[in-house]
Amino acid sequence: MPNLTFGDTAKEYGTVNSATLIAESNYFVAANLNIVNLAPKPEGGKTVGGQAVALRVSGDRSPIYNYNIYGFQETCNDKGSHFFKDCYVSGTVDFIFGSGKSLYLNTNIFVEKREGGGFTVITTKARESSSEDMGYSFVHGSITGTANNSFLGRAWRSNPRVVYAFTDMSNVCKGPRANPNNREPFVKQLSGAEVLPFLVLDFIEPTKWLLTPPNY
């Protein structure tokens, strides 16, 4: 798999424009790439502007297949509907973020320990109200890494929506918030009927744009 690399940070370009690969067109399709931001890992709470995004997808109706995405503030689902399948995403804090609507199928999330300490968070979702049709759904994936007691997500706006289903969570996410009974009050355990719309391709309305994935 070829590598696409870049090495600058938010200090130089702003967070969303620091990405190694920026896809702004609709119907952007990509497969079989390593997307890498080579900027140094920022120390916890000390490196101003140290965020470094690897991939930003800002167009609508974009499928991403078999990508390895390496960075620290990693993937920006800026807007639109996206489908990530068989991908690997690594990062430290808020490394899957934005206002998009994305289905992650069979994706491995790797949470890295921050230099100098500091908490780690996988997602931060920008969603202003419950009427906005956006969110992230992680289905049949896994969470591994070197960090401890990571947060599955935090709010960027007032109504974030992130769903984890059939996800194998290692000890990276174990601790005081691993037990559903001990999570924050805003976290909701969905019933089978409630979670079903987030488990299927209809979540991103695929009949309008999703083609058969390539062989890899």
Automatic annotation (TrEMBL):
Family assignment from sequence similarity: Belongs to the pectinesterase family.
EC number(s) on file: 3.1.1.11
UniProt cross-references to Pfam families, sorted A to Z: Pectinesterase (PF01095)
Reaction(s) catalysed by this chain's protein: [(1->4)-alpha-D-galacturonosyl methyl ester](n) + n H2O = [(1->4)-alpha-D-galacturonosyl](n) + n methanol + n H(+)
Catalytic machinery residues: D94
Highest taxon of source: Eukaryota
Pathway in which this enzyme or protein is active: Glycan metabolism; pectin degradation; 2-dehydro-3-deoxy-D-gluconate from pectin: step 1/5
Name recorded for this polypeptide: Pectinesterase
InterPro entries named in the record: Pectin_lyas_fold, Pectin_lyase_fold/virulence, Pectinesterase_Asp_AS, Pectinesterase_cat
